[in-house]
Write a structure and sequence with these properties.
The chain is α+β, with helices and mostly antiparallel strands and 307 residues long. The chain has one domain (1-307). It is built from 12 helices and 10 strands. It has helices at 5-18, 35-44, 58-62, 103-122, 138-144, 191-195, 213-219, 241-244, 264-268, 271-275, 279-285, 295-306, and strands at residues 23-28, 73-80, 93-94, 127-130, 149-150, 156-157, 165-172, 201-203, 206-207, 235-237. The strands form 4 sheets. A 4-stranded antiparallel sheet has the order 1-2-7-4, sandwiched between helices. It has a two-stranded parallel sheet with strand order 3-10. Strands 5-6 form a two-stranded antiparallel sheet. Strand 5 (149-150) and strand 6 form a beta hairpin. Helix 1 runs antiparallel to helix 4. The longest helix is centred in the middle third of the chain and has 20 residues, at 103-122. It is globular. It starts with a helix and ends with a helix. Keywords: 4Fe-4S, Cobalamin, Cobalt, Cytoplasm, Iron, Iron-sulfur, Metal-binding, Oxidoreductase, Queuosine biosynthesis, tRNA processing. Catalyzes the conversion of epoxyqueuosine (oQ) to queuosine (Q), which is a hypermodified base found in the wobble positions of tRNA(Asp), tRNA(Asn), tRNA(His) and tRNA(Tyr). TRNA binds at residue 221. Its cofactor is [4Fe-4S] cluster; cob(II)alamin.
């Protein structure tokens, strides 16, 4: 049995690596003082559009001790999803994170394995796993634990691997050794701001969620606004422009998670194939994919808007 904080920490990081996570950083659980005024202002300026859920649980978003009894540590984990191959260039595009199986299920199962392993080797540890579905400020915690810095496109960036990764957490009730944040390496670069087709990055480090192509193609349930016609750059689900253009993503390496491999048809389908897509094809290509969030009708709506 492991007996001290350093041993616990080393064990957790080694296990995270064994389970296929890209990296693991740990920070002390507590109130996110710097993020509170920023989040409040972002919400007051209606940057969340119709994403009402962003307004819920304001206190819990900023304080993990309200989510997990006796929370002492936030273990942040990154999982690579950068694909080996991308779609046919003559195609409507989907965000790379949605190529394979829905990441929520893939990561949740890894987090459960990690928590189980911690409990077996350290003893009675209480904790909860979070994958982007609860009020946790993933990027803030990952930055606090030294896994990268939050870039001008508001994504977490890492010098080693760029930004094509998922972020998840285990919030646990034991003290561990804590990592320290890294410095910002965006410098004077404005590539992401200049490239955004809908000018959603309203100032460095501030993204207006209600102007983002991902918001329009995934979150918005109403008709797409006509003033955005012609500005979607052929994205039918999500958008990767601000990541594709980021110089740090030159260092992205393909993932080795078989569950993130796409259905073969996804890579070869042309615009014509997408325009003629049937519900059966939709079900086959996106069987366990995050694209199911838009449903068949939502994807059809997006494709019609791009034509």
């Amino acid at each position: 049995m492991l007996t001290n904080r350093q041993q616990y920490t080393d064990f957790i990081k080694a296990e995270a690596k064994r389970l296929g996570f890209l990296s693991c950083g740990i920070s002390k659980a507590g109130f996110l003082e710097d993020e509170a005024p920023r989040l409040e202002q972002w919400l007051n300026e209606n940057r969340n559009g119709q994403m009402q859920y962003m307004e819920n649980h304001f206190d819990k978003r900023l304080d993990p001790t309200l989510l997990v009894d006796g929370a002492k540590s936030v273990i942040s984990l990154l999982l690579n999803y950068y694909p080996n191959e991308t779609q046919n260039t003559e195609s409507y595009k989907i965000s790379k994170y949605a190529y394979g199986q829905d990441y929520h299920f893939v990561i949740k199962s890894k987090l459960k394995d990690l928590l189980h392993s911690i409990q077996e080797n350290i003893g009675e540890v209480g904790g909860r796993a979070f994958v982007d579905s609860a009020p946790v400020l993933d990027k803030a915690w990952a930055a606090k634990s030294g896994l990268g810095w939050i870039g001008k496109n508001s994504n977490l960036l890492s010098k080693q691997v760029g930004s094509f990764f998922f972020i998840a957490e285990l919030i646990v009730d034991i003290e561990l050794e804590y990592d320290t944040p890294v410095t910002d390496h965006c410098g004077s670069c404005t590539a992401c701001i200049d490239a955004c087709p809908t000018q959603a990055i309203v100032e460095p480090y501030v993204v207006d969620g209600s102007k983002c192509i991902s918001y329009f193609t995934i979150e918005l349930k109403d008709n797409l606004p006509m003033e955005m016609k012609g500005k979607f750059d052929d994205w039918m689900f999500g958008c990767d422009v601000c990541q594709d253009i980021c110089p740090w993503n030159r260092f992205s390496k393909p993932h080795n998670e078989p569950l993130f491999n796409p259905h073969p048809d996804l890579l070869t389908m042309t615009k014509k194939d997408w325009e003629e897509i049937t519900e059966d094809t939709f079900r086959a290509v996106f069987k366990k994919s995050a694209v199911k969030r838009t449903k068949f009708e939502g994807l059809k709506r997006n494709i019609e808007f791009l034509k």
